[in-house]
Predict the structure.
Amino acid sequence: MEKKIVPAVRDAIELYMRTNHYTMDDLAEKLGVSQQAVSVILSRGFGLASSRRWASTFGFSSRFLMTGEGSLMNENTVESGDVVGSD
């Protein structure tokens, strides 16, 4: 049986891409991989190594990428424009 990505994960990543005006080529460039590698992940799903790489690059939750449980963004991710440790 071939592995498939959880639909909620694919949908969340597609929304993220639309919101940030990213193409698959943009994701690939940020990840340092080919567009084909991104396409494979988005059709087959995430393993531990790929989920960790995407999580560290984009601030995604590795758990969400692998299971579809929780939310796409890591709780500890600081959104751009936020100031940490400043009053």
Observations:
- Residues 7-20 form the longest helix (14 residues).
- Confidence is low (pLDDT under 50) at residues 78-87.
- The chain has one domain: 7-67.
- The domain at 7-67 is CATH 1.10.260.40 (434 Repressor (Amino-terminal Domain)).
